[in-house]
Amino acid sequence: MGDKGSRVLITGALGQIGSELTPRLRELFGKENVVATDIRQPAVDQDGPFETLDVLNEGDMRRLIKEHDIDTVYHLAAVLSATGEQKPDLAWNINIEGLMNVLNAAKDMKLRVFHPSSIAAFGPETPRVLTPQETVMKPRTMYGITKVVGELLGSYYFEKHGVDVRGARLPGIISNVAPPGGGTTDYAVEIFYEAIKHQRYTCFLREDTVLPMMYMPDCLKAFVALMDAPLSSLKHHGDYNLAALSFNPRELAAEIKRHIPEFEIEYKPDYRQAIADSWPKSIDDLASREQWRWNPDYDLPAMVEDMIKVLGARHKKGGL
């Protein structure tokens, strides 16, 4: 991630990943060196600089980058998969026009960029077991389409303009901090809240729907490791395959029942089932492991144990 003098701006900092990446980067670089931005106002006081930013406003973005002497942008602002199917125009505008604003600023102002992709970039024609790094990319969601375009734009700006763009295809991210945010994989977050509060959950996917997942601490670890890697070791840019966990709702529920024996689950698949059925079950991330030494820390039992521990303690304090 460069030297310890890095000055970072994060877009979408109040989202699921941003709300945990921001404090992590502030630990690494110092509170005043990480500027959190979002289109929303924060509900709680920020432990460091915060600015309101609409990523579609290129002038405001450039002003903040200049004012804060930014050298690295983590561009997280995006409309996610399920929400994107309900509002495709909004998804295209924010996910593509917002990214173009970041990339053009990076080209002109000599910035490094981290921009995550997603397993949503794959489609039904993609091999679903151990999905290869190089494969068919024909997504059926607007979110997935924007992620493929984003990957291509990252490569284009690197090759044409020398912009150091990095990113990985994220699986479903499981967090114990931010609430679910409109993604197809968010059942794996909702289930913990409902299990702890009500001991039951109605799942919007079939019980046998295997999807790739990752616990948030591993997600943050991946961001840091990829940005720390020397550019000369990277053969890809914004499209690294990334794997950690793969499981289905039945397996997750069984693991939760080991901690909450009275927990019950029922299945009522909705429109998100079709989205999930177009995505991989497992990912081949050999390129990430070889080129920037990726290695996750959490398996399914360790993730479930930590989620229940953290959320259970918060629930007892009345904060869930």
Strand content: 5-15%
CA-atom Rg in angstroms: 19 Å
Order of helices and strands: EHEEHEHHEEHEEEHEEHEEHEHHH
Rounded average pLDDT: 95
The CATH first-level class of the largest domain comes to Alpha Beta
For the largest beta sheet, what order do the strands appear in spatially?
Answer: 3-2-1-4-5-7
Helical residue percent band: 40-55%
Description:
- The protein is globular, with a radius of gyration of 19 Å.
- Helix 6 runs parallel beside helix 8 (249-257) and helix 6 (187-198) crosses helix 11.
- With 320 residues, it is an alpha/beta fold.
- The mean pLDDT is 95.
- Helix 1 (18-29) links the parallel strand 1 (8-11) and strand 2 (34-38).
- The strands form four sheets. The protein has a six-stranded parallel β-sheet.
- 42% of the residues lie in helices and 15% in strands.
- The two termini are 34 Å apart.
- The chain has two domains: 8-169, NAD(P)-binding Rossmann-like Domain (Rossmann fold, 3-Layer(aba) Sandwich); 173-212 and 244-316, UDP-galactose 4-epimerase, domain 1, CATH 3.90.25.
How would you summarize the topology of this molecule?
Layout: E1 8-11, H1 18-29, E2 34-38, E3 50-52, H2 58-67, E4 72-75, H3 81-86, H4 88-109, E5 112-114, E6 117-118, H5 142-161, E7 165-166, E8 168-170, E9 172-174, H6 187-198, E10 200-203, E11 211-215, H7 216-228, E12 240-241, E13 245-247, H8 249-257, E14 264-267, H9 272-277, H10 286-292, H11 300-316
